[in-house]
Design brief:
13 strands, 28% strand, 11 helices, single chain, Rossmann fold, binds adenosine-5'-triphosphate, alpha/beta
């Protein structure tokens, strides 16, 4: 069941086309991730859906509801992670949650939220004394206070260290277990790959592609990158390079010192041939790896551009 549908969203700021043409739908209970480089239009898209920015064109439907006719009902159904500046720095997490709870008719108990965002231990510390990751967790908690069905998180892990980022991931996965729908933006590919049911890749205000992370990676060429490092120095790598280039399964190779990189659609066959060769020559292979394709490769394949975090 679709809980959200957006059609042909457009937004221009002066001469900047922030969002050119964005359409997608989100199903109940999924983690739907909008990913794209800086300035791709993620925040603008999210803010139009959240009712904070008025689109120049396009439609936004929450089931049968839209912002024009059902603003109050939509606000009850959605939770928006507030900017850090919206929190009260001199109050504690507990006090912030209690305060936000008074804005709503029905609120989830503060203790439950503190538990969910793993801040029970810090509930009585002033917000200004919390770490960046703890503040972000509180922001998610504040989005949860009205117990909404749909939660919007705009780059909740940007600027956090890997461990703090993982804590946020745990909360998002917990929200999924609770049956919530999460719409997330990020520019971390690894995050999108780990958390999302579906990923919507945007670039320059347009959708590049939408699908499950695994289907997107599947759609890529079946080619894999294989690396072999030789203990016997560059000469061995050079010879292996000449040998690999003559194999039908290998499309291209690259030499980096004592490491041979090659691209093949049949990694097993290629490796068998290469090991026969190294055995004959009595060369010792130090390391072998087959690189898995990632969402980064999907972005590069679709846009022709390098991905930069
Ligand atoms: P980031 O990852 O950097 O947050 P984003 O994908 O969220 O980027 P947006 O913030 O939606 O991208 O911005 C898209 C484009 O629109 C950018 O070029 C941005 O500078 C511009 N833009 C966004 N909001 C405004 C505004 N209020 N006034 C003028 N330009 C804006």
């Amino acid at each position: 069941m679709n809980v959200l549908e957006v059609k042909n969203l457009q937004k221009t700021f002066g001469s900047i086309r922030a969002v050119e043409d964005i359409s997608f739908s989100v199903e109940a209970g999924e983690v739907f991730t909008i990913i794209g480089p800086n300035g791709a239009g993620k925040t603008t898209t999210l803010e139009m859906i959240e009712g904070l920015v008025t689109p120049d064109q396009g439609e936004i439907h929450f089931g049968e509801m839209n912002w024009g006719n059902h603003a109050v009902a939509i606000k009850m159904q959605i939770g928006v992670q507030p900017q850090s500046s919206a929190m009260f720095d001199l109050l504690t997490p507990e006090e912030n949650l209690d305060l936000f709870a008074t804005f709503y008719e029905k609120a989830r108990p503060t203790e439950e939220i503190l538990e969910l965002i793993n801040l029970t231990e810090h509930r009585k510390n002033q917000v200004k004394k919390l770490s960046g990751g703890q503040r972000q967790r509180l922001a998610i908690g504040l989005a949860m206070i009205s117990d909404p069905d749909i939660i919007f998180l705009d780059e909740p892990t940007t600027g956090l260290d890997p461990q703090a980022r993982r804590h946020i991931w745990d909360i998002i996965l917990e929200l999924k277990k609770l049956g919530k729908t999460t719409i997330l933006t990020t520019h971390y590919m690894e995050e999108a790959e780990k958390l999302s049911d579906r990923v919507c890749i945007v670039d320059q205000g347009n959708i590049v592609t939408i699908d499950t992370p695994s289907a997107l990676i599947e759609k890529l060429t079946k080619e894999r990158e294989v690396r072999l490092s030789f203990l016997d120095g560059e000469e061995a790598a050079n010879e292996a390079d000449v040998f690999a280039n003559n194999l039908d399964s290998v499309s291209r190779t690259e030499l980096e010192g004592t490491t041979l990189k090659l691209w093949t659609i049949k990694p097993e066959d290629t490796l068998l041939d290469l090991f026969k060769f190294t055995k004959e020559r009595e060369y010792q292979v130090e390391q072998v790896s087959i690189r898995e394709m990632s969402l980064e490769d999907v972005f590069i394949a679709f846009t022709g551009k390098e991905w930069r975090d």
